[in-house]
Design goal:
By secondary structure, the protein is α/β, with parallel strands linked by helices. The protein has one domain: Alpha-Beta Complex (Spore Coat Polysaccharide Biosynthesis Protein SpsA, Chain A). Helix content is 38%, strand content 20%. A 7-stranded mixed sheet has the order 3-2-1-4-7-5-8, sandwiched between helices. The protein is globular and about 50 Å long. The two termini are 33 Å apart.
Amino acid sequence: MPEGIFDITVVIPAKDEELRLPQFLQTLITYCWASTLRYEIIVVDDGSTDKTAEAVLTFQKSFPGLTLLKLGRNHGKGYAVKQGLLAAHGNIALFMDADGSTPADEIEKNLKFFQEGYDIVIGSRVLQSKTSKVTALLYRKSMGWVFNFLVSTFLIKGIKDTQCGFKMFRREIVRPLWENIRLDGFGFDLEVLFLAQRMDYKIKEVAVNWKHVENSKINLIKDSGKMLVNIFQIRSWYSN
């Protein structure tokens, strides 16, 4: 594995997260300092209108490896994640949600799969294990089951949960994969995984701890409709 400046880069996309992000950042930074690995954190401010950027900057003195990447306007979660990953310097680059729904200790728990030859490791709220627990609202679970069924039927085979906001990538594949991603919104995970399979990258899906956090930025009706459209957009784009 070529040496990056850091061992791990954590990318956090954030839009109007001045209330939820600081708590997660503090937890993540504490975790990074306790590790023997070298960490970089990149927060991508996706056109926030609140004090998200100011909140991030208050942590830079306590963690020099923290970078704020501020976008001029709102582009969408997919675009923000893409910009963060393309700016990453870690041997492993990953993204996590700003609400801290997936805990930081999932990072090093799953590094072993890269040593086993996998290129991508993705969290799953569907897979179960003795060490993982998922706390989600019933109606969100129900909608997730329906969506995952449609995804597996029309687009991506062999993956139970495409939308979990915890995905890790080996350094060498970040640019070849992410430079080709077109979707800017919440449906970007679909394109990433579909294209990764097309490119024959080895993907490991793992059960992770996950908890529902209030004030989600996803509008279940509106954004789910867009993601359903994305399924057929992707099929059309890559049909040849």
